[in-house]
Amino acid sequence: MKYKTIGIGEILWDLLPAGKRPGGAPANFAYISKRLGDHGIVVSRVGNDAAGNEILRNLERVGADVSHVQKDAEYQTGNVKVSLENGQPSYEITENVAWDYLDLTADWRDLAKVCDAVCFGTLAQRNEFSRRTIREFVKLTRRDCLRIFDVNLRQNYYSAEILRESLESANIVKLNNEELPKICEMLTVAGGNETEQLKNLREKFNLRLICLTRGASGSLLSAANEASENGGVKIEIADTIGAGDAFTAALTHGFLRGWSLDEINQFANRVGAFVASQPGAMPDLPPEF
Q1: How far is CA 118 from CA 72, 213, 226, in A?
Q2: Nearest-CA neighbor of 122 among 199, 186, 60, 40?
Q3: What are the E-state strand segments in 27-163?
């Protein structure tokens, strides 16, 4: 069965030292979902410009569904300058671009009501216009829809209010070991260690699942009656761009199919590690995935 899995938020060009590549966490999520066998749909906005047309052609070529991407006549297609140090990226993100003005059209309202999973983060909520659209889109989903908040803190484009509202809208959350202490401090969540912090965060916001990624050291998944810890997959890193988004897509793929947490954890680590071993966020996946 193919599930409808949506990435809503930013779509942009990653301007890497080796050249530009299509990116944005929601687009990465939708692409990997498609490569894993689901119907990955990008819900975003580009400028009505050459850069926007090119990014859509690139995503169509690799199979992502971009039929719901909007075109903006006033604001340009987004981009981000990416610097790499030992494979770890840092970002300089262009402001006031097309994806800052996501519009909740009738088409998007209809799409929200039929999707099986929707993934969103903090970055695309930096502008109140898009923030409102994302919040309403998530509210329109079915009760059984997976609403995944993949935190992705970038620069200063987040606040306690955005984090709280996003956690309240979600039923699954993925964050990394650098984001966890920041969120716990901003939202006054107690805990003497990561396990306690995850449990308290999960219970505070009534989440079905919370996932902590630890880079090369694997991940910890916490649900009400089950937990899973995985030590990760040892690989030679090309760059880590999109590896977290790939992890989220693989986690979603397994959760939709009712896999155990151990099965989900192992699979998500394998997929995330493979993407980290390749340049860019959207490599071809091996047939075994």
Answers
A1: 23, 20, 23
A2: 186
A3: 39-43, 45-47, 70-72, 78-85, 88-93, 117-120, 146-150
Give the three-class secondary structure for 136. helix
Measured CA to CA in angstroms, residue 121 lies from 146, 149, 226 at distances of 14, 6, 25
Query: Alpha-carbon distance 106 to 113, whole Å?
Result: 11
Determine how β-strand 172-176 pairs with β-strand 70-72: unpaired
What pLDDT digit, counting tens, does each position of 48-85 carry?
A: 999 999 999 999 998 889 999 999 999 999 999 888 77
User: pTM of this prediction?
Assistant: 0.94
CA-based R_g, the chain, Å: 17
Asked whether the beta carbons of 66 and 54 are under 8 A apart, the reply is: no
Report the SS3 class of residue 83.
strand
pLDDT digits (tens, 9 = 90+) for 27-43: 999 999 999 999 999 99
CA atoms within 13 Å, Cβ hemisphere of 112? 19
Let me know: does 99 contact 130? Beta carbons within 8 Å: yes
Residues 200 and 208 sit within 8 Å (Cβ to Cβ):
no
- 4-276: CATH superfamily: Ribokinase (3.40.1190.20)
Q: What are the backbone dihedrals phi and psi of residue 76, each rounded to the nearest 5 degrees, phi first?
A: -80, 165
